[in-house]
Specification:
The chain contains nine helices and eight strands. It has an eight-stranded parallel beta barrel with strand order 1-2-3-4-5-6-7-8, surrounded by eight helices. The protein has a single domain, classed as Aldolase class I (TIM Barrel, Alpha-Beta Barrel), CATH 3.20.20. By secondary structure, it is α/β, with parallel strands linked by helices. Helices cover about 40% and strands about 20% of the residues.
Length: about 220
C-alpha cells in the first residue's frame, strides 16, 4: 500500500464531485457550475461527450476561469491535450483514455489525476501504483448517462478503502436518496451529474450532497 499522496491534500477529494452534463450552451453551463460551486462543490469535472473540439476548448477555458475565481478545482475528462492547453487542475482517465504514467509525465506532480476502475480492484491497485491521486468505481446504480455500465457491489468501496492509500470516488446514478450507503461503505466522494444539474435548484442540490458528508463521522 502506498502512503497518502503528498502532492495534493486528500481532503480535496471529499464530498460532492460535480460532473458537467453535455450542454452546448457555454453560458448556461458556466452558470450552472457556478451554482454548484455556490452549493459547496470544490471539485468539478468537465465532461462533454457530444461537443466538438472547438466547443470543448471554449467551455474548458470558461470553466477553468470560473473555478479559479471561486476556489474550486477543474478536472478535464479524457482529454490530456485539453487539460494541458487550458491549465486545468487535473485529468480524469477512463479505461481507454491513455496511460496514467504518461499523463503524470505530461502534467507534472502538482496536478490531480483520477482513474475510472469500474468494478475492478486490480485496476485501482495499478492506478495507485502508477501515480493516480484518486480512483473511481461505478456505476453503482442505473444511470441514464451510461445505461450499460457495470454494477460493482458496495463492498468494493470498503475493500478499496482498506487496501488503497488514495481517496475513493463512487460514480453512477447517484442521488440524495441512495448516496448514504455509498458513503457508509467508504466513498470519500460521489461523482454526480443529473441529480445536481437537472435539479430545479442546482446550488441547493449541491449543498444537500455535501451535507451528507458533513454528517458522516
Amino acid at each position: 500500500m502506498k502512503p497518502a499522496d503528498a502532492r495534493r491534500p486528500p481532503r480535496l477529494i471529499c464530498g460532492l464531485y460535480a460532473v458537467t452534463p453535455d450542454d452546448a450552451d457555454t453560458g448556461h453551463l458556466v452558470a450552472a457550475v457556478g451554482d454548484a460551486i455556490s452549493g459547496g462543490a470544490r471539485l468539478v469535472q468537465y465532461r462533454n461527450k457530444t461537443a466538438s473540439a472547438r466547443l470543448r476548448l471554449e467551455q474548458a477555458h470558461a470553466l477553468k476561469a470560473l473555478c479559479a475565481s471561486r476556489g474550486a478545482a477543474l478536472i478535464v475528462n479524457d482529454h490530456l491535450d485539453l487539460a494541458l492547453e487550458t491549465g486545468a487542475d487535473g485529468l480524469h482517465l477512463g479505461g481507454e483514455d491513455g496511460s496514467c504514467v504518461e499523463a503524470r509525465r505530461a502534467l507534472g506532480a502538482s496536478k490531480l489525476i483520477g482513474v475510472s476502475c469500474y468494478d475492478r480492484i486490480a485496476l485501482a491497485r495499478e492506478a495507485e501504483r502508477d501515480g493516480a491521486d484518486y480512483v473511481a468505481f461505478g456505476s453503482f446504480f442505473p444511470s441514464r448517462v451510461k445505461p450499460g455500465a457495470v454494477r460493482p457491489p458496495l463492498e468494493l468501496l470498503t475493500q478499496a478503502k482498506r487496501e488503497l492509500g488514495v481517496p475513493v470516488v463512487a460514480i453512477g446514478g447517484i442521488t440524495i436518496a441512495n448516496a448514504v450507503p455509498l458513503i457508509a461503505a467508504g466513498a470519500d466522494g460521489v461523482a454526480v451529474i443529473s441529480a445536481v444539474f437537472d435539479a430545479p435548484d442546482v446550488s441547493a442540490a449541491a449543498a444537500q450532497f455535501n451535507a451528507l458528508f458533513a454528517r458522516d463521522p
